Amino acid sequence: MATDESAEFLAEDIVYALAAEAAAESKPGLVTASQTASHTDMDVFTLLRSACSLRDTFRDAALLCANLDVGQAINSCSSLFAELRSIGKYGEQVMFRVTGGVNTHKGGIFLGVLLAAAARIVVDREPFLNPSQVCLVARQLAFPALLSDMIFSDDDSDSVDHLSGGLRAWRMFGVQGIRGEVISGFSSVLNNGIPALELSLNRGVRIGAALTHTLISLMAVVQDSTVLNRVNDPKRLALVQDRANDILANGSIFTKRGKRLIRRANGEFTRLRISPGGAADLTAVSLYLHLWSSHGRVACKKNYSSLCEEVDGQSFWI
Questions:
Q1: Its Enzyme Commission number (predicted)?
Q2: What pTM does this model have?
């Protein structure tokens, strides 16, 4: 495929955000540089290897939409979304190849492909990318197909074995998962994720800790179907949301009490094998949407040396 500068920087920022989320510390139930938590099949280097392998996938999604305006994209959304899904499926193959068959970023690929495409449609009309505008276009591109997925899965069949984890959670418990987030226009990201990230950065917090606060803020509200992947019990999702809301009510990363509760939740989620992976994917989304915005470019410059320090364990804050 041909390339262009906009597609390149969009892809680079998505990869950076996925890597930064992987490197962030103190994430309950999730892989960090110092723990594998509820996961037995991956560590932080698996995640970083996966993230770095996906740059071409996100670039190709952006390039697909390089010559489209919003009207053209919406009018052809069914065929366009099918092509984006094909690009995403290829990205999954790359991911599985470099991780030895481990699903590290399946949700992140879906979101990154969709948002890279939406951002490329918008970017020629805007000097900087407004997160709300990008999310609106992404919703418009995906809405018919995702709604069809959810309606088709809710048929008269008693079996859910053929469904993906996300559709199984929707069919069994009404948990909307990643599809519901996209259909809502990324409401959790816009109303919780990005505001939490920007609050942290404006208070001078390092990127790793800022992403932890972003994650906790998303865990409190997201209908995260990945929490149900290992055990189909909706009480697990309620537990995650309750713990996250308690952490936020006690100051999150900004207080000693909040930090203690984060550590406690990490121990509990690790013991119960709860992984809020959907919230982690949306944490990365919050970061790259922030990076694409004008104030994001100023407030959160890509500092790879800082990121490497966090991976190396030299700047843990708890």
A1: 2.4.2.52
A2: 0.88
Name which of 276, 162, 153, 271 is nearest 214 in CA terms. Answer: 276
In whole angstroms, what is the distance from residue 13 CA to residue 56 CA? Answer: 12
State the pLDDT at residue 247: 99
Segments in the chain below pLDDT 70 = 1-3, 126-127, 147-176, 229-231, 294-318
Q: What is the pLDDT of residues 64-112, one digit of tens each?
A: 999 999 999 989 998 999 999 999 999 999 999 999 999 999 999 999 9
Distance of CA 167 to the CA centre of its chain: 18
What was the pLDDT predicted at 60? 97
What's the rounded Cα separation, in Å, for the pair 212 and 36? Answer: 16
* Sequence-ordered list of residues with C-beta below 8 angstroms from that of 287, at least 6 positions apart, any chain: 16, 17, 20, 21, 197, 211, 214, 300
Q: What does the pLDDT read at residue 141?
A: 94
Residue 93 CB contacts under 8 Å (≥ 6 apart), including other chains: none
pLDDT of residue 309: 47
User: Residue type for 213, please?
Assistant: H
Residue 6: CB atoms within 10 A of its CB come to: 18
Residue type, 38: S
The one-character DSSP state at 313 is: T
Q: Do the beta carbons of residue 138 and residue 186 sit within 8 Å?
A: yes
- CA–CA distance, 252 with 258 (Å, rounded to integer): 4
Contacts of 219 (CB under 8 A, 6+ apart): 28, 240, 241, 243, 244, 276, 279
Alpha carbons within 13 angstroms on the beta-carbon side of residue 89 total 6
Secondary structure class of 77 (helix, strand, coil): helix
193: which DSSP letter? I
Q: In this structure, what token pair is assigned to residue 228?
A: 């149900």
216-249 burial, b at 16+ Cβ within 10 Å, e below that, comes to bbbbbbbbbbbbbbeeeeeebbebbbebbeebbe
